[in-house]
Amino acid sequence: MLTRYVQRNLTWIDLVSPTPGEVRSIMQEFGIDPLIAEEMLMPSYKPKVERRENYVYVILHFPMLRGLNRRPEQEIDFIIGKNFLITARYTDTDHLHSFAKVFEVHSVLGQGSAVHGGHLFTAMARNLYLALINECDVVEKYLTDIEDGVFKGEERTMVLQISKTGRIIHDFRQTLLPHKEMLLSLEAASTRLFGQEFLYYLRTVEGEYERLRQMLEHLRESLVELRETNNSLLSTKQNDIMKTFTVIAFLFLPLSFIASLFQMNTRYTPLLGTPGDFWIIVGMMTLIAAGFFVYFKRKGWL
To answer: Which residues pair with 297 in a beta bridge?
Structure first.
């Protein structure tokens, strides 16, 4: 699907799962290298920044936290020219859809501030990073729910929740890891095309990225602390259970010994054969068990 947005002398072409015909028409209209046009037709697994004479080609991957049933990341290709910006992606993105609505409103009202494609790219990139910062708030809510569960005695259930959230944070960080290098490469490539003053706009994008990176580090540290706390509580609870079973087993050990002793096939076993012998033996075993129980209780083992 091809959507065209125009604001003064600036054109934004948004391609979603582009067809060869759509890419061919864009290639002819804006003078895009056929090799780059071919690359836009299929996903790329590595980010890149490539400068050509009249434009810069950028590939970035962004996390998709709320799309857990889909790929953990989404690729967006940018072709940044002086009077145009071309974006290509393979699935729809709510963040770019919202950005397009704002762009259309500014176009109608004549309020657009973008002078060239580089300005439009930086505005779009900042919007994407801000949206990802909001996604971090969703993860933080997950961690808050996990923390509540940990201290409500749901340690076993929280093991799975911690693992799932850890996977989300890991995928998020791994996807964004190359962005710093790509943004630095974009500085060198784009300033030749748009001038040194364009560095200011790129630095604002880098600032949003750094803010996002710090939030991710905070989430990762919080997750590590929660995992350690949950493991400690779970281990303590298991130790208490094992201690209780050990004490119970120790209580029954002398009783089993006494019962085995009176089961010996001897002629002169004490008490056997006397009136009330069964109740005497049961009473002895009960007294011994009660004595051990009181001793363990005073020691704090129960």
So the answer is: none
Angstrom distance (rounded) from CA 69 to CA 65: 10
Cα 59-178-99 angle, rounded to 5 deg: 50
Q: How far apart are the first and last CA of the chain?
A: 70
| pTM of the full structure | 0.70
- Report CA-CA distances (Å) from 275 to 267, 268, 272, 285: 17, 15, 9, 18
Q: Is 153 or 300 the better-scoring residue by pLDDT? A: 153
Report pLDDT digits (tens) over 187-222. 888 887 788 888 888 888 888 889 998 988 898 888
Can you read off the two tokens belonging to residue 28?
């002819």
Q: Which one-letter DSSP state was computed for residue 86? A: E
Task: In whole angstroms, give the CA distance from residue 83 to residue 50.
Answer: 18
| The two structure tokens encoding residue 37 | 């046009």
According to DSSP, the β-strands at 84-89 and 10-16 are: parallel
